[in-house]
Write a structure and sequence with these properties.
By secondary structure, the chain is an alpha+beta fold. About 45% of the residues lie in helices and about 15% in strands. The strands form four sheets. The chain has a five-stranded antiparallel sheet with strand order 1-2-3-8-7, with helices on both faces. The termini are far apart.
Amino acid sequence: MAFSDTEDILAFVSAAIPGFLPAGKIEELSGGNLNRVWRVSGSEYSLVVKHAPPYIAKAPDIPLDPRRIILEAAALRLFDKPPLNSIVSERLRPPRLLHADEDRHAIILEDLGNLDSLDEAEDIGEETGTGLGVFLARLHGLTAGDEAIAASINNRGIQQSRLNVQYARVGEMLDNYGIPNSAELGGKARKLGEKYLAKGRCLIMGDLWPRSILIAPRSQQARIIDWEFAHYGRPAQDVAHLLAHLWMLQHRAGTEERKNQLRQFGTAFTKSYRKEMRSHALLFDEEERADAGVHFGAEILARTLGSFRDGYVYEGLGSGHPAMREAVEKAVRALGPEFRVFDGWPFL
């Protein structure tokens, strides 16, 4: 049930958080694509209200299961107890969940303040990249084979949407772009999307891209937000998703300094992730590395030729623009048989 107006939002918060005294206006926050998000100021502190419509908020023609917000709440609750409470700290953690309403498809979160997302932050130090790699590896490793978590975070609806909107469209996108082996590569992507419908190996964040990573200036504290794609899935999807976005950001960065910053962040992330995963070598095996390449390519195509180009680094570029050609070529190589994630980062 959508919120009808600001009074409706205030009533929702007041009922959910006893003692919270609203003060000032409600501010709708931008930055995300999937949901509607508001900051509600109070006399002592502020809160964030997040509502999931039955579609992508910035693309209403694309349906999306609104129950994703309840699965986000379930994922966030896992960080309050063993084993995942051991990986959170003020240095790096998800936001705190304060309330969830399954009927309204809405949650209330702590307000993290005006932090910069990874793609906008001026300083993205290697230390944060290292910390993120450790966090993600421990998320994957500590939840591997956990049947209770597998049952509680079964986000098949989101994975079906990804299959329909992303993986299944790869062949068509490449064919329209004139790629000769588009059917073969499209078949690989579709097969991966179908694999990701099944129960996987561990808990994944599911949407680890730059706008889900918020960084505080100077302190380099980081927060990982937007867990509505969390799923008991395959670790390759998390790793390849982030690396694809880091590649795209450095590809379109305006200065060599920024390119180097992104490369160093990516290098720190991959090194720490791989080191931490040595004790879980079977979790990220050769199959995962091959699958990661396919997702890496599919994500670049979604942001260049697909439904998610608007508002990102390739927006406004024609199909013949050199940067577009380079990005599509990179995606095609990633979809091929020889590409393996981690080999030669930053994949230049």
